[in-house]
Amino acid sequence: MKTEFESVLLGDYSDIILGGTPKTKEPSYWDGEIPWASVVDFNVTKKLYNTEKQITEKGLNESNTKLLNIGDIIISARGTVGKTVVCGVPM
Known about the structure:
Elements lengths: L29 E7 L2 H4 L4 E2 L4 E3 L1 H5 L11 E3 L8 E4 L4
Parallel strand pairs: 2-5
Antiparallel strand pairs: 1-3, 4-5
C-alpha cells in the first residue's frame, strides 16, 4: 500500500520564534521568578513546569529571550537539536 504525504512548511502552521540567553555574567538577569528553559530541563518531562534556572524581568527585557505561554512547544535548535517540550507555565 502506497501512502502519499504532502510536504508543508512548519511556519505556515505556527509562529516560529528564536530566543536568546540573557548574559550569564550579568547577575541582575538571573535568579528571578521567570522559569528559563534549556535542554537540561527537556530530559525531565514532556510538559515543563519547573526549570533549573530562572531569570528576572530585567533579564527578559534586556535580551532576546521571549516569554512563552502555557501550551507553547519548544524545539531545541542548538547543541542537542530536535528535543521538544511543552510549556506547563509561562516561561
